[in-house]
Amino acid sequence: MPEESLLDSALVRLDEAARHLNVDADVIEKLKYPRETTKARLMIRMDDGSRKSFLAWRCRYDDTRGPTKGGIRFHPDATAEEVEMLAFWMTFKCAVMNLPYGGGKGAVQVDPRQLSKAELERLSRSYIQAFSRIIGPDRDIPAPDVYTNSMIMGWMADEYSQIVGQGSPAVITGKPLALGGSVGRGDATARGGYYLVRHLAEELGLAGKLRIAIQGFGNAGQYIASLLAGDGHTIVAVSDSGGAVHAAEGLDLDALMAAKNDGHSVVHTAGRHGHQAIAADELVGVECDVLVPAALENMIHKHNAHTVKARLVLELANGPVTPEADGILADRNVVVLPDILANAGGVTVSYFEWVQNKQGYYWGLEEIHTKLRTIMEREGRAIWQLSVDRGVTPRTAAYVHALSRLAEAIEAHGTQSYFDS
Ligand SMILES: NC(=O)C1=CN([C@@H]2O[C@H](COP(=O)(O)OP(=O)(O)OC[C@H]3O[C@@H](n4cnc5c(N)ncnc54)[C@H](O)[C@@H]3O)[C@@H](O)[C@H]2O)C=CC1
Ligand SMILES: O=C(O)CCC(=O)C(=O)O
């Protein structure tokens, strides 16, 4: 038997949702395959004069509900399969939030930490040169993901404008403010999850001061730490690709941020401020109320899910809990607020950025926060209610919620449009 692919493992969630919804089999068939995945080899000049090439992809998974939308990841382990799986998740995430988008994703197989700033800029520009005919403000709109940021989005937006011969800010979101970025995009992924937890706190049984463990201390991880600490909760453990630190009485966030700003791992703070180094995987099982995976896929799996002590897992990362681990956590009454809802604040504020770019009129921070909170609470409440009514996990409820919107749109396009073209 052929081995199960990454996308096959993600499709388990689609099959599960389909069991709870009366949708045409043709709809499910359409959602099982990416519409198009384009591969390129990017060749750049290194600072020492040599040339180096990197594999890169852009997947437009499904555009039934609008232009495809999703980040670009720079990671040494990126593969075409991973990009397709991430683009599948984006399709469902945009539908969960009722954004007028389909799902896409891109990646370059590179460790950006090994490149100089000038090399990174050349690589970013060369990605846009390779995919300029795939992306577009009404076709496919990239954004940041793991190891990419607003500076990279700025270079990419600039390269696209040069290629098409005019400013075109709506082609990419997560840009610097000076290039048409939106206020509030920086912390939007974490803030969306934060609004969600606050809104459902009573249903989740989360009263009083909470102990929080965070896996991954980049954009999503750092901002969720600040937001939750700002409400008086205690951050007891954090990790990054270099390891993990723990302090039952609470970590010193300023010291952690300072270490990251200086280019160090969080482990750099161990032995000071009451921080103790622990093995990276130990973080999953530390004593806490809320576990926030904010790093990469498949970090909570069948071998460590039984160690989880938290009552809530808030998935800021995409796909951090494997389907087997989901089962183990559900059996142990650990609630998982799923990625396609919990981390959707990022793409939601990206949508706000795109709307502002198209209308050429920019909103203030309070307006962005209010709009984000309204959508997170509206869709979060609907999914929570669906999960209670149907007796399913919030993840299955989120997929059912998204699938019903996707099915409606696929059927509205007409069957001849999607199967015979
Ligand atoms: N940035 C965004 O707007 C959004 C990000 N996400 C997801 O959130 C997750 C994190 O993304 P960002 O914070 O943007 O990336 P980032 O690049 O800012 O941070 C990633 C963090 O993960 C850490 N990490 C890498 N490997 C690790 C490991 N084995 N163990 C522990 N930590 C590890 C890195 O050291 C870094 O601290 C990803 O799954 C991403 O797809 C989801 C929605 C939006
Ligand atoms: O901001 C966006 O458009 C997409 C962010 C993203 O890649 C994600 O939500 O996983």
Q: Could you say what the CATH architecture of the largest domain is?
A: 3-Layer(aba) Sandwich
Instruction: Give the number of helices.
Output: 15
Query: Percent range for helical residues?
Result: 40-55%
CATH superfamily of the largest domain: NAD(P)-binding Rossmann-like Domain
| CA-atom Rg in angstroms | 21 Å
Structural class: alpha/beta
Count of all domains: 2
| Poorly predicted ranges | none
Q: What is the overall silhouette?
A: globular
CATH class of the largest domain: Alpha Beta
| Cross-sheet strand order for the largest sheet | 10-9-8-7-11-12-13
N-end to C-end Cα span: 32 Å
The whole-number mean of residue pLDDT values reads: 96
How would a textbook summarize the main sheet? 7 strands, mixed
| Portion in beta strands | 15-25%
Domain Glutamate/phenylalanine/leucine/valine/L-tryptophan dehydrogenase C-terminal: 182-414
Pfam family, one: ELFV_dehydrog_N
Organism: Aquamicrobium defluvii
GO molecular function: glutamate dehydrogenase (NAD+) activity; nucleotide binding
Write a concise synopsis of the structure shown:
The active site is at residue 105. The protein is α/β, with parallel strands linked by helices and 421 residues long.
